[in-house]
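Write out this protein's structure.
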Amino acid sequence: MSGLKLFQTTGSGMTEVMPRLAEVEADVQGVVEANMQTLLGVRFLASEYSTGPVHGGRIDSLGLDENGAPVIVEYKRGTDAGVINQGLFYLSWQMDHRAEFEHLVRDRLGVTAASQVLWSSPRLICIAGDFTRYDVHAVREHRHSIDLVRYRLFGSDLLGLETVASVSGSVQVARRAQRRAIARTAAGVQGSAMVELAGAVDEVLLGLGDGVNRVERKTYRAYQRLRNFACLCPPQRSKLLVYLKVDPKDVDLVPGFTRDVSGLGHHGTGDLEVQLRTPRDVERAQDLFRASYAAA
């Protein structure tokens, strides 16, 4: 995985754990499906889902991500030039069979989840032993949300995942335009200071690294790197709330700035709430933003 080396401590020193590919594709699929929410932030729906006699295919895995977006996951043991086109073929089928997919969600996850499916941002995740530079280029030319994820097995019980490329299906606009869009959303109901603060947070989160996708929901904006790493709620009168995928137990909580919300209901995802009132608070929060981004 891009030169990554893994070592195990032994009584006589350290021994390198050599990476390997799975014996068969189904081994990777089985591990991911059994742990899909932990690995990908996706709730598992179905395996080897038939697209019927007309399309004549089987979707490896179907799921629903943290923001309610439909997800197709396709697997290849090694490098396969057809994985992206195959996934896009199934993505097209899924968009033409929305009622069928919502029925599946209703059966597996309930009526509420089915009513909140985010059809504006369907996703394709391709997990394979490797990808070529042509694969990476092809993904960037498509107007779909696609993640290319390289896997490696280490020893008998370790799995490594590495995001090779990630693109958003939403139309990309300049960050300054994105800040103006946020301002327009909040205009007339929030003070100009909170509008500016929301724009600054948006710019910081988008600028943390390559492959950050922004997903719009009614009650929050998710910043996603395969999984959500931050959720920004609409501005309140005197503060902004950001939820991060950081374990509150690893943070020295500061009253009025950070709060443990694990087990508490809130919009978005993440157990650490960060309260922002001034540009100085945004600066103070940047290490937490980076830690959440890295964890995703």
